[in-house]
């Protein structure tokens, strides 16, 4: 095992993901969000949809995160979360929105899997439901002791100034934020990718398959899920898509198994996802211990529904 080569390959992959996936999406999404804020559209959307999402512990801005996660990419909600953080959203609502984002499926995995046999419409519906459950669980249970009061930030104090900015200034600010967020995600990506590659190189994946295969067989679960779950957890959704596609092509992963496992394996609560989202703000790191159990509840609900429907 060449450790240096593994680390270098992980670094290249992390930089590629950061520069060619996260950065373009975040530049566009942040520019759109800042433009809508400058025109007062965000305030109107919050007023209209806020009451509808309030029972789930979410606000009107959370609607953008729902749309972005399920219809654009896992990286797109970062723009909404950044805006919420800058506008001084309360800890309790921010935790609920984070939990919702972690629990939902990823558009960048959903859509490529459609040709492989994924039933897209039910997957999207269950994804949104799981996100709402995660938000509600965090707001009403796990994060109930967090502050519900919004706090003023430099962004909220200078919102009038932001409204006077031209389109070019908005794009430049969005670009600066996107570069900062993309660069902040690189260290966690490198570590997670290097870790999974090292585990595979030393034979840990094969050993795990050997040890767990008998137990999974007794439970009627295919051992192929060991590799898929490990890759998903350590390397993220894009890596999972690659592995799932290969397994389907080899006939080791059926369409039924793909759909039954989508609730568990197509979500954002993996090491790269956690690193990318927590890199947005130091506040998110502090809130994560309240976010994690809520996100797990949402993922559990999605997992159960997919198994009931497709098994």
Short description:
This protein is an all-alpha fold. Helix content is 78%, strand content 0%.
SSE blueprint:
Blueprint: H1 3-38, H2 41-53, H3 62-71, H4 77-86, H5 91-103, H6 107-113, H7 120-142, H8 154-157, H9 159-163, H10 167-201, H11 204-218, H12 224-235, H13 237-249, H14 255-260, H15 262-265, H16 271-278, H17 282-310
What does this structure look like?
By secondary structure, this protein is an all-alpha fold. Helix 7 packs across helix 17 and helix 10 crosses helix 12. The chain is globular and about 60 Å long.
Number of strands: 0
Number of helices: 17
Element order: H for helix, E for strand: HHHHHHHHHHHHHHHHH
Beta content: under 5%
Termini separation (Å)?
A: 40 Å
Estimated helix fraction: over 70%
Mean pLDDT: 84
Kindly provide the radius of gyration, computed on alpha-carbon positions and rounded to a whole number of angstroms.
Answer: 20 Å
Poorly predicted tracts of residues? none
> Based on CA inertia axes, which overall geometry fits?
globular
Structural class based on helices, strands and sheet pairing: mainly alpha
Largest sheet: none
């Amino acid at each position: 095992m060449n450790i240096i080569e593994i680390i270098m390959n992980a670094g290249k992959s992390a930089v590629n993901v950061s520069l060619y996936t996260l950065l373009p999406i975040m530049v566009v999404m942040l520019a759109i969000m800042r433009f809508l804020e400058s025109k007062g559209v965000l305030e109107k959307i919050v007023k209209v949809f806020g009451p509808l999402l309030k029972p789930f512990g979410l606000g009107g801005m959370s609607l953008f995160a729902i749309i972005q996660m399920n219809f654009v990419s896992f990286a797109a909600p970062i723009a909404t979360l950044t805006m919420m953080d800058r506008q001084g959203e309360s800890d309790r609502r921010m935790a609920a929105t984070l939990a919702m984002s972690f629990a939902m499926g990823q558009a960048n995995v959903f859509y490529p899997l459609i040709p492989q046999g994924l039933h897209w419409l039910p997957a999207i519906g269950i994804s949104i439901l799981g996100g709402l459950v995660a938000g509600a669980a965090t707001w009403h249970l796990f994060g109930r002791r967090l502050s519900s009061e919004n706090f003023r930030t430099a962004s909220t104090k200078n919102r009038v100034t932001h409204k006077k900015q031209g389109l070019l200034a908005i794009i430049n600010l969005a670009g600066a934020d996107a570069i900062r967020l993309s660069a902040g995600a690189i260290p966690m990506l490198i570590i997670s990718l290097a870790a999974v590659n090292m585990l595979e190189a030393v034979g840990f994946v094969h050993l795990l398959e050997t040890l767990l295969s008998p137990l999974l067989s007794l439970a009627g679960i295919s051992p192929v899920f060991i590799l898929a779950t490990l890759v998903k957890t350590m390397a993220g959704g894009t890596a999972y898509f690659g592995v799932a596609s290969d397994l389907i092509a080899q006939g080791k992963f059926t369409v039924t198994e793909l759909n039954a496992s989508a609730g568990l394996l197509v979500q954002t609560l993996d090491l790269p996802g956690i690193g990318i989202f927590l890199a947005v703000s130091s506040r998110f790191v502090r809130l994560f211990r309240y976010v994690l159990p809520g996100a797990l509840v949402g993922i559990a609900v999605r997992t159960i529904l997919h198994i009931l429907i497709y098994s």
